[in-house]
Amino acid sequence: MSLDAINSTDLKEKVIKYFNKKSAWTYGFLRYSVIKKSLIHVTKLQKSYLIRKIFIMLVEEGFFIKKKNELVRSYLYKFRNPSLPVSQKKETTISWD
Fold first, then answer.
1. Which pick of 53, 60, 61, 73 has the fewest CB atoms within 10 Å?
2. CA Rg, the chain, in Å?
3. Domain spanning 3-79 has what CATH number?
């Protein structure tokens, strides 16, 4: 069963609505394994592949903030507060001539 057959947009909306209802941005940065448990609960899917695909889509669309863990080679994720504007990183180069 593929993600397209399950209608990924409905699942994404369901997950986003759940995280907004729970105010998940107050939880801080979490490991993927913690978020995965919530995704399994909301979507009722058991296949790790499908859960991971949904999560990756949400990260790519900017619903989660990704932060590199300093101690190990892994990442921490935080659900983005929908009422806050999306901050964009701007690079500024200063040259001294």
1. 73
2. 16
3. 1.10.10
